[in-house]
TrEMBL record:
Belongs to the AB hydrolase superfamily. MetX family. The record marks 318 as: Important for acyl-CoA specificity. Transfers a succinyl group from succinyl-CoA to L-homoserine, forming succinyl-L-homoserine. This is Homoserine O-succinyltransferase. It catalyses: L-homoserine + succinyl-CoA = O-succinyl-L-homoserine + CoA. Its EC number is 2.3.1.46. The keyword Magnesium does not apply. It is an enzyme of class 2 (transferase). GO terms for cellular component: cytoplasm. The lineage of its organism: Bacteria, Pseudomonadati, Pseudomonadota, Betaproteobacteria, Burkholderiales.
Length: 376
C-alpha cells in the first residue's frame, strides 16, 4: 500500500517578527505529517525543504497519478527515515508558492496580492515559523531535523536558534553560507526574472500575466549547477536531437542538452512563482551564521548541542565537500558529536535526491541509532 499524504493548513494570528526588521502579520503554514507521534512525543522528525520543493515530502495524493513527494525514496514505511517508527513533519516555508502565505496571497493592507511587497524572509524566520507550528502540535523536542541543500541550512540553523528543542541534525549537501560564485548564479537567475517584460515590478498578478521567460532562464541556470559535468556528458554528451545535422541556427534546438534544459524550464515556469524565486534565493544568499562572530564558524556553532550527521557528495560543485568539512571542523572545535561521510557519486548536487544504496544505508543506520534512543 502506498503512503497516502494529506495536506494540512494551520493559521497563526500573532505576527512573526522577522530578522530583517518588521514582522509578518497573520499567516498560514501548509504542512504534512506521516507516521504516528508516540506516547512520549519524542519521535518527531522535521524535514526542511530546498528551493523549489514543498511540504509534500513523501507519499502520494489519493487518486492523483505522479504525485509522489519530493523525497519519497528516502521517507516512508521501511525506508531510511521509517515512518513506521518516526512521526515525520514537512512544512512549506513562508514566501513559497505551495500553500503557505506568500507573494501571491492577499496583502491585508491593500486587498491585492502581496507581489514584490511581501517582506523579505530568511532561513532564521522559517525556523522560527516552524517552531511555532511544533508548539501548536504539542512537540517540545524533535528527535531530529533533516534537510538537503537549503533544507540543510535550516537544519543547521535549528541547532543554533532552538538548540534544546532537537537531539540530532542531519545536514546533507549543504554549506554554512554561499560562496561568491553561488551568489553570482542566483543573481543571474534573478535578473532574468526582473528584466522579463511580464514581471511588472513583481505585480504581474493584477496584469494577468506570468514572467515565464525569466522563470525559464532562471531554471536553466539553476539546473546546470545541480548537475555534474560527468552526468551531463554521460546523459547527453554532444548528441544532436534526432540525429540531425548541424543547422548553425541561433533559434533551433539542436543538441540534446538544449532540449533537456528547455523541457525542465518549461515545466518549472508552469508551477513556480517568480516572486517566490526571488525571495528564496535571497534567503540562500543571506544565510551566514558566522557573520555575527566575525566570520568565525566555530564560535557560531558553540551554541549547538545536537548530535550531527553531515553528508556530502564528491561531484557536488555547488555545495562541495569542502563546505561540509567546514561545518565538521567547527563542530569538532567545540567537541560536538559529529559523523561525516563523503559519498562518491557522479550526480552532482542532485545526488541528495537520488537513489544511492551507500547513501541510503548510511541514513538508515543513523536513524536506527536515533530509534534506539527514542525507545530507551
Amino acid at each position: 500500500m502506498p503512503l497516502i499524504a494529506h495536506p494540512q493548513f494551520m493559521s497563526f494570528a500573532n505576527a512573526l517578527p522577522l530578522k530583517g526588521g518588521g514582522s509578518l502579520g497573520s499567516y498560514t503554514l501548509a504542512y504534512e505529517t506521516y507516521g504516528q507521534l508516540n506516547a512520549q512525543r519524542n519521535n518527531a522528525v522535521l524535514v526542511c525543504h530546498a528551493l523549489n520543493a514543498s511540504h509534500h515530502v513523501a507519499g502520494e495524493y489519493e487518486g492523483q497519478a505522479k504525485s509522489q513527494g519530493w523525497w519519497d525514496n528516502m521517507i516512508g514505511p521501511g525506508k531510511p527515515l521509517d515512518t513506521n517508527r518516526f512521526f515525520v513533519i514537512g512544512v512549506n516555508n513562508l514566501g513559497s508558492c505551495f500553500g503557505s502565505t506568500g507573494p501571491m496571497h492577499e496583502n491585508p493592507a491593500t486587498g491585492k496580492a502581496w507581489g514584490a511587497d511581501f517582506p523579505v524572509v530568511t532561513v532564521e524566520d522559517w525556523v522560527n515559523a516552524q517552531a511555532r507550528l511544533l508548539d501548536a502540535l504539542g512537540i517540545d523536542q524533535l528527535a531530529a531535523v533533516m534537510g538537503g541543500s537549503l533544507g540543510g541550512m535550516q537544519a543547521l540553523s535549528w541547532t543554533l536558534q532552538h538548540p534544546e528543542r532537537m537531539r540530532h541534525a542531519v545536514v546533507i549537501a549543504s554549506a554554512p553560507n554561499l560562496t561568491a560564485e553561488n551568489i553570482a548564479f542566483n543573481e543571474v537567475a534573478r535578473r532574468a526574472i526582473v528584466t522579463d517584460p511580464d514581471f511588472h515590478g513583481g505585480h504581474f498578478y493584477e496584469k494577468g500575466v506570468i514572467p515565464k521567460r525569466g522563470l525559464r532562464i532562471a531554471r536553466m541556470v539553476g539546473h546546470i549547477t545541480y548537475l555534474s559535468d560527468d552526468v551531463m556528458n554521460q546523459k547527453f554528451g554532444r548528441q544532436l536531437r534526432d540525429g540531425l545535422d548541424l543547422r548553425y541556427s541561433t533559434q533551433d534546438i539542436e543538441f540534446q542538452i538544449e532540449s533537456y534544459l528547455r523541457h525542465q524550464a518549461d515545466k518549472f515556469s508552469e508551477y513556480f512563482d517568480a516572486n517566490t524565486y526571488l525571495l528564496i534565493t535571497r534567503a540562500l544568499d543571506y544565510f551566514d551564521p558566522a557573520r555575527e562572530y566575525g566570520g568565525n564558524l566555530s564560535q557560531a556553532l558553540a551554541r549547538a548541542v545536537a548530535k550531527f550527521l553531515i553528508i556530502s557528495f564528491t561531484t557536488d560543485w555547488r555545495f562541495s565537500p569542502a563546505r561540509s568539512r567546514e561545518i565538521v571542523h567547527a563542530l569538532l572545535d567545540n567537541q560536538r558529536d559529529v559523523s561525516y561521510a563523503k559519498i562518491n557519486a557522479p550526480h552532482g548536487h542532485d545526488a541528495f535526491l537520488l537513489d544511492d544504496p551507500r547513501y541510503h544505508q548510511l541514513v538508515a543506520a543513523y536513524f536506527e541509532r536515533i530509534a534506539k534512543e527514542v525507545q530507551a
